[in-house]
Structures are given as structure tokens and as C-alpha cells.
Amino acid sequence: MAPTTDQKMLAHGGNPWLIDPEALKALAATAKALCAPGKGFLASDESAGPWKRAGHAECAKMEDTEALRAAYRSMLYRTPGLKEHISGVILHTETLFQTDAKGEKMVDIITAGGMIPGIKLDKGYDKAGIPGTAVGPLGHPETMDRGLDTLKTRCAEAYAQGARFAKWRNVLQIDPAQGLPSDLAVREATDQLAKYALICQSEGLVPIVEPEIVPNGDHDIYACAAATERVLAAQFKALADHHVYLEGCLLKPNMVKNGLKGPQATAEEIATLTVTALMRTVPPALPGIFFLSGEMPLDMDNEESATINLSKMNELYPSLPWHLSFSYGKALQKTTLVSWLGKTENEGKAQKMLKARSAANSDACFGKYKAGTCPSVGIDGNVNQAAGPY
Question: Which of 30, 132, 240, 316 has the highest Cβ tally under 10 A?
Fold first, then answer.
């Protein structure tokens, strides 16, 4: 007897738009390539110049123009040997369809460098927020992103341009006194991310699901641990409800940390509570988890701390069912940006800094990074970074 449609869906991941096993196989192959040992993502998807979010006084003075953004990013993507540490590059829409000063497509520079181009597809959020929700430590109500209505078309356009994976970020806030994140915000964020993931897969893109719990606030690490477990449990329930093919999907979560104004947790505490939350909520069918670095206090070295935290996780838990890696923006680029500062003559030095920090995070993927062995601008010149949607 021929299998029913329901049986076919079960056999091929459940995705109702992807009965074709060859399409699912392609998604799984891309996800596997992105999870290559020792490799992570260069998050290069800021809408403004990344120097505006670097949190450094000198970078903040730089002019923000499309030409300068193109010059900086093409310099990054041409870094010699970057593919040894970076499997994928997350792009803003501007960059995906952009050429550099020589007329070469950014996606071609990336693929020629042995990396896979990806695209940020959320359209950010309105700070007016979800009606009836409380104002959290970000200074606005709880939110959800825009962009689902045009997503399927934009996925197809991105795939045609060369992208093979995508990212969508929803933001959640912690305020234990007000019960944040609320059940409503968690439900809206995780359900939307599941819809996005399903649509991405229907157009051949591996979705990165990013339910980010931001660190703003004065809560301790245990409040973040509880919120993270709650959000991730809801997220994978939503992915299952929407029949998302987990073998062709990736997760980009926050690390479990204290609030920016809360009591400082150690790297061991961060590693232990983060991995505990993951083991309690994330199915082993998911091939990879790529952490965002998140905002940090001004007296903390963002690059160094992000690398140390990732390394400690892989050191303490060397046999996890998923590839545990990085998807860093500022935590890969801050010293690079300060070394560059928009000057052509500084490109070689800036590329060396990017290569060095990328190599440090490769070591962290194996739990072998030695603190202080990678050059860093440290906390000199730290200022508050631009906040909100990007």
C-alpha cells in the first residue's frame, strides 16, 4: 500500500512544503557544512556601519556611508585564511546585493573565500511593542519582529542571489518583578520564529532561529537560566508544531549570564548553566548551536569574554550532541575596527586582527583557548553601543 501524505511527512522531517527528500538532503548538507569542526559565523548583518555598534569612542566618530560599509566588509571577506575558522557570513540585505569598489559581488568574494553567504531576514521591531505588555529594561514594551508577510518572496530572492542560510532575531527582556518575559511575548516570539524557519526551508535556506534574551537589567544569572530554559522549551515546541526539519535548522541563543547591572557570574557558572539549559531543551537532531555574544558591561572586554565563555563550555562539556560554536559580530570585529578606522593603509593590520580573533574562537570550539593569548583592544575607549533593533 502506498504511503499516505502524513507518513511521507513523518519520513521526511514533517515539513508540509518539503516532501521531496532531495530538498531536505540539501538543507541537511548545508547545515552540516556550517557546523564544520572549529568553525563559526561572522555576523556582518548590521543595518548601519558596524563601527556604530562597536561600543568604542574612536569608531563612533566614523562617518556611516554605503561606500564605507562596502569597503570595510569587502576587506573583511578577503581576509586570507578566514575560511579556516569561519564557515558562514551573515549579511544584511544591502550587502547581499552589493558590489565592492572593484565591481565584484560581495557574495562572490565570500564564496571564493570558501565560506557560505547567509542573510538576515527579520525587519526589526517597533518599540511601541505588543499591546498590553509591560515596559522592560530596554525602556519599551515587549516586542515581536516585522517581515513575515513578505518573507517567502525575500527568501527566494536571497537564494537566487547566492544565500544558503538565513537568520531571524526576536528580542525578549527579563524583569522578574514584572514577570518578564511574559507568556504572551514568549509565545509570539517563538511561534513567529517557527513560521520563519518553515518558510526559509521551503525556499532552500537553512534557518538560524534566534530567540535572544537580552542582558539589560539587574537580575542574577539564575533568573536568566530560568528564562532561557522557558524560552528554549517553547521554541522547540513551536518548531515541532510547525513541522520544521531540525536536521536542516540551527539555533543562535544567548548565553546564560547575569544582567548588565547584576552580580557578576564566573565563566564556569555561565558555562554550566548555559549547557544545562541546552541539554534540557534542545533535541539532538539539531546539528549546531551558535552563540551570540550579547552586550556586556563597559568594564568588560567583549571579545575576550565571549571567547573565554565559549571555550569553558567546550572544555567542561566536550561530548555534546551538537556543534557548539560562535556567531559573533562585535566580539569578532571590535579590535579589527579600531585597527582599521576607515583607512586603506590599515587594511592588512585589521585583517590580521580578524584572523587572530577568529582563530581564538576556533580554539574555543575545542575548549582549548588560553585567556589573554589573542590581541584585543580591551576596554580602552569603551562607550555604550547603539541599542535596539539593527
Answer: 30
